[in-house]
Amino acid sequence: MGSAGQGAVDERAPADLTGAPPEPVSPLDGARNDRWLGLGQALLIAVPSLIVIAVVAGRSWGPASDYAVMVMRTSDVFGRHTPLLGVVSRNHGWYHPGPSQYWLMAPFQWAMGVTGTLVAVGLANLAALVGAVVVARRRGGTLFAGVALLVGLVLVRSVGPSFLVDPWNPWVPFVPLFPFVLLAWSVADGDLWCLPWAVGVGSYVMQAEVGYAPVVLGLSATAVVLLLVDQRTRLRQFWAAARTPLVVAALVGVAFWIVPLVQQLTGHPGNISALVSYFRHPSTPAVGFHQGIRQWGEEFSLPGPWLTGHDTGFLGFVAYRSPVVGLLLVAATLVLGVVAWRLGRPSAGRFAVLTSVAALVGIDAIANITDTVANYLVRWAWVVAASLWMSILWSLWTVLAHVWRPAERHRPLVAGGVTFGAAVLLVTLLPGASRAQVPELQASNAVKSLVAQSRPALDPHTHYLVRWTDGPLTGGVGSGVAAMLTVKGYHVGIDPVAGPGMGRFRVLSAHDADAMVVVYDLGNAGPGWKPLPGARRIAHYEPISPDQLRELHQLDATISADVSRHTGLTPAELATPAGALRLLANRALLEKQGFDKARFTRLAALRALGTPYAVYVVPLPH
What we know:
By secondary structure, the protein is mainly alpha-helical. It folds into three domains: about 5-280 and about 405-435, no CATH class; about 285-405; about 440-620, no CATH class. About 60% of the residues lie in helices and about 5% in strands. Helix 3 runs parallel beside helix 18 (about 410-435), helix 8 runs parallel beside helix 10 and helix 14 (about 325-340) runs parallel beside helix 16. The N and C termini lie far apart (about 65 Å).
């Protein structure tokens, strides 16, 4: 992206690339003179990621559930079965648009084992946070870079430091979306060498999680429109200056999207067609505008989940709130941006338009979510809400600097003050970063223990069909055992129902297998459970005592019975998406009925201990 000290800042139009006349620029501008402060800001934003990476790099990890799928597919990169698409959507049958997350993690997994996937994601988030500060400095000097630093650290505090190394695909694009917003602003400002970076970051974000696509595409389209409107009177000079950045951006786009396009042209079905078809004609109804805008209201409320780290209600879904505060926030952003624009600061106005469009696009994005609105489906809203507040602050500063000229002389002092505040916040993050954990720690412990016990009893030359009882698709601990055995070089096959996620080439029938490995979830096996005839136990994991397990089952049954009585739903119906919606609709009634929160707390504590598992080898007589 070039030197931050040489780039455009908020008080300057993009004359260096497009030939536009410059806006006034202060001789005290931090982007030119405060290089050491700028370097310090970049180092401060990097500290949480560096600590978390160092902590988890020294730990072993046993990926389970979706993480197991990712580890298995990452191990296939650049082999015969290299993934051409992203993670499968278990409930809908299509895949997220591209494989860039797998390809990023592959070299680290080869070099460091499965923990390398955590390091890879941590480094990507580290680059994204530093990049956000660097791009912010291009736009507004060290003052705005200090704002980006502070906001970035607030976001890290809200999601938790361990989030920075979490490779779950809904979490992967969260941090990179932050610099993408600033890159889109840079493109709108005519800083065209940010365009290739915007294409790359935006592609990575959308390929990991298609739910980010509306915001990314909305920001991209708005940035292009603002750029072309600004350059409409000097298009010939603009195209001459833009030719090389456009070519580089096109090459970056081709590098990211050529593989998904090949799959679309050669696959049956093509995944892009499947995605378009699903979102045009979803198999389950969307939540709709009435519910969507109220849950949008929760994400853009005051003080807001991006500050508090909480956006879920009683039952774990995104809470409801009136959208009035959120709409007023968008209106304030636009009004202040227009005022700044009319005062000769169009860059601040463009930023206001971009962030406001992203927020309003979010209403439609949430309204079109099918089934239930889980928090991971709308986590992008935290970045957009934070960007709205950044725009408001920047517009206020530009208006103040115009009305009260001495404000510009105090810019370095204000930039230093904001940076100092960010450093204080960073200190509060350090204990949490030093205690960072691998994802799904309890399941990880179970996977590691079961695999360590199972390996001596398994033959590396035998073809095993691995089955599990803790979920029909990706399972949990069971799929983790399958993944780790695969990574360790054992010949492992799976049932067809798990094939789309773990690779159809891994599907193995019982007739073609030499033996079967079954991972039993003993916590849900029931009192009359018995292993298959002829089965031999090779591993056992018991983190919870029999008495605690009985208490857990009793609490679970009691709470389920109470919920069923008040909602009219059977326990089986409660487990369906429609049942979850009914439960969500009855949450006020449940609270009025005086649900004993102590029971929920005790149940959560027992579940946090983990579940007992056993692994058996079953001979297959053909």
